[in-house]
Amino acid sequence: MAERSDRAPARWRRPFLRWLDGVETGWAVPLLIACFVAIWTLYLAIAYAGGGLHPDTLEAWTLGRDFAWGYAKHPPLMGWVATAWTSVFPASDWSLQLMAMANAGLALVFVDLVARQFVTGHKRILVLLLLMLTPAYQFHAQRFNANAVLLATWPLATWCFLRAFETRTALWAVAVGCTTALSMVGKYYSIFLVASFAFAALAHPARRAYFTSASPWISVATGIVALSPHLHWLATTGASSFTYALAHANGIAASSLVEVRTFVLGLVAAMGVSGVLWVLIAGTRLKQLPSDFAAMSPGLRLLFYVAIGTIVLPMLTSLAMGTDLPSLWALQGLFLFVILIVCGARYPIERFYTVNITVIVAGVALAAVLIVAPIHAVHRNDRGYEERRNLYARAASELTRQWRELTGEPLSAVGGDGSLAFATAFYSPDHPSNVGPLEYESTWGFPHKPAPDRGWAALCFRDQGSCIQWMEWVSPQVHHSVRREFTVRASLWGRPGIAGEVVVLMVPPQEEKTPASAADEFSSNRRATE
């Protein structure tokens, strides 16, 4: 049936076939990715209308406002990207939703650069379509954080590594060093990609030619130089982000076995729909898999070793060190397996199947926008989110109003619960600086960034016991503070939603003391001491 359809396609298939004809002329792939970014950005805008941005995205934007070579919890790439984006686009929900999907689209562009090393024509499209049916490029991508930035950096670094291994030229060697360093400042988990490159080069039959050339050593030197500002930051600031990463290594052997099992099952589940569709496409030709593997080209064999390394090395590390191992940490590497399966098949794939998968991908996207997104928005407005993100913007606005009413000045600094503080920094019209989330600090203390004369505010949800406890501890230790409570309610298209109680602590700006008053206070304190 597939061959017959390709010879005499139905009328409705002909526009799709003309589109597939444009793959090698250069317009079909960009059109597919542009449509993907547009429709899933629309989905996010509808599904999260009134719901606010995810705390991870708010964190990335907030941290990136103060340029640094590192941040307390994570390497700096996510903050850099968010800041660069909002230097061009406004700081709004739709803008950062577009940023998240543009990052996913860029990732697919880099995946195509890898795929085109091995296949041409509609097989390149098939690789992208199968990836679009995984959760990595929509639902995982919308939480723009240290994991999501790797969606783009991993395929880019892989492409450069393939080219460097094949050509052994200095230019591609430098590119490998730079792109692996970029992945490392995205998230330290990328050490497994770097290690997989080394493993693949050692396992490949052409290893002698590669390691006797200057290419790998240029890559290593370039990577160290590119990472040196971040390494200097780690050395001079206490390496808090590295310490935070190591906090995941606190398990035992039994729990590590569970982590590894869950890790594998999670990745299999993520590939489930794409895997089933590939089985339907290949049919009885699946029997050729052993012979296809034996005849794999040198480039694909190198990619196979990289893919194996990105799965096996984290598992071994988890078992050895007792680390956490969520499967979402490895979703950015799924492209390796899709490329291997599609590009490793030596038999031709009929365009009939590519058109069918295109229709499925388009149907899923349209159903998500027209049906799922509105239902999700209404449900979340009524039931809320675990992190109560649909109350963020209203809490930020009310705190800003009360602060201005109390002080007559813009709010300059905010702290308290981490997610609420990030949200206030983003949603408040004053865009106050963030003074550090409490939930990740090992010890509590006063906000340290704002100057005392500018004042600061903190906020918590009423049922957040540890945050409220911190407020009760800090209140009597400041010269003057105002504590208030208010209720905010979510709203969607004029429909009221869930409500939440917020507690705020406001420390108004302190008046600057004249030299005389400062001397009087010093004398008074001295007499009291004596």
Cα-to-Cα separation, first versus last residue = 100 Å
What ranges have pLDDT less than 50 throughout 5 or more consecutive residues? 438-444, 513-530
Estimate the global geometry from the Cα principal axes. Answer: globular
Main pleated sheet: 5 strands, mixed
Summarize model confidence as the mean pLDDT.
Answer: 89
Q: How many distinct beta strands?
A: 5
Structural class: alpha/beta
Report on this model:
The protein has helices at residues 2-7, 14-21, 28-47, 55-64, 77-86, 93-115, 122-132, 150-167, 170-184, 191-203, 207-211, 215-237, 240-246, 253-270, 272-282, 289-294, 298-321, 334-344, 351-383, 392-407, 418-427, 465-474, 515-529, and strands at residues 413-416, 433-434, 456-461, 482-492, 495-507. Strand 1, helix 21 and strand 2 form a beta-alpha-beta unit. A five-stranded mixed beta sheet has the order 2-1-3-5-4, with helices on both faces. It contains 23 helices and five strands. The protein is 61% helix and 7% strand. Helix 4 crosses helix 21 and helix 20 (392-407) packs across helix 21 (418-427).
